[in-house]
Amino acid sequence: MTTAVLPETAPVRIGIHRTTLEDLIQVARHRRPVVIDEAVFEVMEPSRNWLQGVVDSMGPGKDTPPIYSINTGFGSLAGRRAFAEPADAAELSRRLVLSNAAGVGRYVDEEVVRATMLIRIVSLTQGFSGIRPEIVTTLVDMLNAGVCPAIPEYGSLGASGDLIPLAHVAIVMSRPHTGEDIELDSGEAMLEGKVVSGIKAMAAAGIERLPLGAKDGLALLNGTSFSAAQAALALYDAQNLLETAQITAAMSIEALMGFGDAFIDELHQARGQRGQIEVAARIRELLAGSTLIDGNATTDPVRQPPQDAYSLRCVPQVFGPIKDTLAFAAGILENEINAATDNPLIFPSLPDTRKLKAVSGGNFHAEYVAFAADFISIAVTEIGSITERRLFRLDDGTLNRGLPDMLIDSEQTGMDCGYMLPQYLAAALVSDCKTLAHPDSVDSIPTCANQEDHVSMANNAGRHTRQIVANIESVVGIELLMAAQALELRLGLEATADARLSPAAAAALALVRGTSSDDGRPIDHIRADVVMYPRIRKALELVHDGTVVDTVNQALAG
């Protein structure tokens, strides 16, 4: 049933190994195909067989106890048997999907949808959900064919699972068990840039929509997949952003003729914090070969005292904990990608003394994801906060050690603003992040007649962290532009005309100057004001897609 994949593209295989963050990025962002290992279906079979036995036991005159989500209502309506007729189990799943598809707001990016679908597939194939194999193979077919359900950004509380967002996926792939399949009740999906019905999108892809069976509806909806998708995508970009920010920070330190003492290894070993030690080592690597840096482990500094402002001197002490925090979040989120998070979960291996193999718990509660997203938000905001302080210092003629005000050597002082306004933009973006970084995980509003009386708000945390990362990518992109301008200005001064840049700074500078901005014009050294937004947009692209890191790493390796 699974759609064939292109032979030249190795698919991500579900079931052999744990799914990694890199796997998720490949599927979500680069549309790498997915296949399910056949062994997975054997893992799924015991829970499915137990569930089928329960359904077979239902019917008039049969005393089947209420089993949550199989023959009962949901949330505060649990605990009472909703019906006795086996066919109604399928109708229960269908009605759940219809009622839960209630989101509002803009449609989230395709990569979020694809990441969500992948995580849901991985979760359902852990073997504890009792669903039919056709459910996961249909999701795989949708991914491989590019079917993208339209998911509104608002609706999930990050507990009881991401019910509303996941319902907007389930409604596209499912149809009624009996009766007419109404197009208005098939959800929405993106097709060739337009919003169409789920029926049209699935027909265009040649994929049959499925009737849902017992528990299928809740298994599709009840999990952390949507919140985890947003947090995981943000994490990946945050890790790249931190690597890029170390490069642009080193460029600024070099342009400002910073002191090397702050990065000597012994200093950082004395504190013993892993991230700090690693960042200091990276800064030393990035600054190596520069004659603009004053002092190092083998050479005394010339100027006294050998102390820079904190935004230069304390980069390891700020970026180090950020690196450690992102690593901590990565461990949480990779676990969550591979977790079974619906409810109830079915464990046929429980002792025979327990007849009810369906265990009700709270794996759908996304506190882990909410904490991870909040921590990422706080950490990335700090990347922007310290970076913006270096931008301010680069612009200020009283702080930048002899460079012109606003980094522009204008023929008429006051005629040109130079890089004044990019620093304004950075300040606005960082301020926005300080608001967005307020932790969502400390909020909770009870729902469902107080049955669901504590929720994680992980969806809000995920949305906010993605915006924070996007904001700070722009801030670091601005530093890339301003540091490049500052380095050239420094080399243009008589006192430092013979200075030698580090290979890392030279490579980053060459990248900037060899790149055309969004309007087609080169990102050149400015001596008079030019329109800035095309340059800033292109710098953002160089940061976001990893080009800055790749370019510098290649230069250092060569």
UniProtKB/TrEMBL annotation:
Pfam families recorded: Lyase_aromatic
Keyword Lyase: yes
CDD domains found in the cross-reference section: PAL-HAL
Enzyme class: lyase
InterPro entries attached to this UniProt entry: Aromatic_Lyase (IPR001106), Fumarase/histidase_N (IPR024083), L-Aspartase-like (IPR008948), Phe/His_NH3-lyase_AS (IPR022313)
One MF term in the entry's GO annotations: histidine ammonia-lyase activity
Keyword Ligase included in the entry's annotation: no
Protein's name in the database: Histidine ammonia-lyase
Gene source species: Paeniglutamicibacter psychrophenolicus
